[in-house]
Design brief:
The chain has about 290 residues and is α/β, with parallel strands linked by helices. The protein has one domain: Divalent-metal-dependent TIM barrel enzymes (TIM Barrel), CATH 3.20.20.150. Helix content is about 45%, strand content about 15%. It has an eight-stranded parallel beta barrel. Strands 8-9 form a two-stranded antiparallel ribbon. α2 runs parallel beside α10 and α8 runs parallel beside α9. It starts with 11 loop residues before the first helix and ends with a helix. About 35% of the residues are buried.
Length: about 290
């Protein structure tokens, strides 16, 4: 009955269409007792993926990144005239700097402090050492011992400046040395109160290890994940998330369960950084786990 009291008549076709739509709507609902599918509630990128574009037009480049669904950024420097001006612009477009690098394990304190000051000026929470080694690798037990010692000291210095230190892995940490894997050595010989890990999912997989195993084994040590994909076949090069063979659905489900909330799209030597952010944003925002 219509609101004015008159009657309406549904044709058989209209009735079947309406019924089908209703059934489809019910099917889309989660089954009682089953948790609803989750999605990433925030997505970030590392500035290096769009370094060429930011050099040309940093404001326009950042606006596009936000339009593609990104709200977090990893960078060790500001763009424009000053850090306050840069942060003001980021606030206007809805972009937060969560951390950045530029740290060297061999840096003396007088060289490290200015880098930490730069990160503090950006309101960053995390300082990242992207190469936590004094040598090029493969690594020996002695290399691991020295790195762990220096990472712990750097973690203390970061804590004094109100920052949390993260170290970033590559694939060489998964080449066995005389006492196991260098990755596991650093995880077990660095202080959890001072040092976290920014796991790069691609490099773990490239190193021949399942990232899920490492996530689960050290479930309290990660704060940020670097997200890039592994190309199929023998090349195993970098590709944008969603274009390769890494099972992000399973990895994100575990990461979310652990409380990891920072997912940074990153890729080295990308030709079209903004294009990669566009396709990555579309894929990752659709992903349910």
């Amino acid at each position: 009955m219509l609101s004015n009291g008159t009657h309406t008549h549904l044709s058989r076709r209209d009735f079947v269409t309406s019924l089908t739509a209703g059934i489809a709507s019910l099917a889309a609902l989660p089954v009682l007792g089953e948790p609803a599918a989750k999605r990433l509630d925030r997505l970030g990128f590392i500035a290096g993926i769009v370094s060429r574009e930011l050099k040309q037009d940093w404001q326009g480049g950042l606006k596009k990144a936000v339009a593609y669904g990104f709200s977090e950024m990893e960078t060790g420097r500001f763009y424009g005239k000053s850090a306050p001006d840069f942060l003001r612009f980021c606030g206007q477009i809805g972009l937060n700097v969560i951390g950045g690098g530029g740290l060297s394990l061999s840096a003396s304190p007088d060289k490290l402090w200015p880098k930490l000051d730069d990160l503090k000026a950006l309101n960053a929470k995390y300082a990242v050492v992207y190469w936590p080694w004094l040598v090029s690798g493969p690594f020996t037990l002695s290399d691991c011992q020295r790195s762990a010692e220096l990472i712990n000291k750097m973690g203390e210095q970061c804590k004094h400046r109100g920052l949390a230190l993260c170290w970033h892995n590559h694939d060489k940490e998964f080449i066995p040395m005389e006492a196991g894997l260098p990755f596991e050595y650093l995880m077990t010989h660095t202080d959890p109160a001072l040092v976290k890990c920014e796991m790069d999912l691609y490099w773990v997989a490239k190193g021949g290890v399942d990232p899920l195993v490492m996530l689960q084994k050290y479930s309290d040590r990660y704060t940020i994940l670097h997200v890039k994909d592994l190309a199929p076949g023998t090349d195993q090069g970098f590709v944008c998330p969603g274009s390769g063979i890494i099972d992000f659905k399973t990895l994100f489900a575990e990461a979310h369960r652990q409380g990891i909330r920072h997912y940074m799209v990153e890729q080295d030597n990308v030709v079209d950084g903004l294009g990669c952010l566009l396709s990555s944003g579309q894929y990752l925002h659709r992903l349910r786990f």
